[in-house]
Amino acid sequence: MATCDRCGEQESMPYQCRLCGGTFCSKHRLPENHDCPGLDEWNDPGGVFDSGFDDSVNQTRDSGGLAAKVPVDTGPGGVLGYFRGNVSFALLALMWFTFVVQYAVAPQLLDIPVQSQQWFDIFTVNTTHPEYVWTWVTSVFSHGGFGHIVLNSIVLYFFGPVVEKRIGSAKFVGLFVAAGALAGLAQVGATLVANPEVLGQQLGATPNGSAVLGASGAIAALMGVLTVLNPNLRIYLYFVIPMPLWLATLLFAGYSIFVSTVGGGIGAGGVAQFAHLAGLGIGLLYGLKLKREGERAPNQLQFGGGPGGPGGPGGPGRRRP
User: Fold this and answer.
1) Distance (Å, rounded) from C-alpha 157 to C-alpha 138?
2) I need a labelling partner for 255 at 20 to 30 A (CA). Which of 19, 111, 204, 244 fits?
3) What is this structure's pTM?
4) Under DSSP, is residue 55 helix (H, G, I), strand (E, B) or coil?
């Protein structure tokens, strides 16, 4: 059995829309019956086949688009063609590549000890050097340990493709990187407001310094987008406990607020709670924008195309973001 993305009815013989890829019952199988976003591009073949990741489909290499700037063919039949519509997995791979660089390449080959100031200045956005612009991005893909990256990877694996399918690959990358960077900067900014004397001090020189790394802020933004588009989306918390997404989001936000205000502060337990809240807020706002534009989300997260499968954890995890 499968679930209709439009009405939620269980369907033993579902139909898949060839324009948007959604699953529908016989009543809503036609594009016009499920408000298919592909109808808006029906008269634009370039738009139908362009995932939005780059403009190589309808622009030539010397036309000034992204394809003109990249020396590798990013078209549908090119070397990077796989990443069209699969950017979620590309970002996931980049997270693990960065993890290897953090804990193997940097200390073993580059003589940069883990958690040294130089290491922090490469892989984290921190109160010592918040002006290091590259850390705003590298910190999104860096992680504080194996458990940290595994948990974030699981949530990105389930939530990422759903959001990417709805907003397109280019917007997905922009949302992920921007939300992750802004979430980290929000955490560091809040720390500096509370403890302005730590600005410029090395992290080891003061217990109040802050170094932020991880994709949890970005993933919280994805969670916020889905919560707005479909608050009743069914997920499985820790792969076991079924609950609507709005409840999981509420619990996640409530926990972060409680810990930030009562349970030890915005960085209690080595977890950047304020970054989680900032990422979630960005996602909620962007979700509202998409909703006004008529975007929708499926009624449940499915694994491997099956009828309901585990929808992934209900929150971006309780590790450093």
Assistant:
1) 20
2) 204
3) 0.67
4) coil
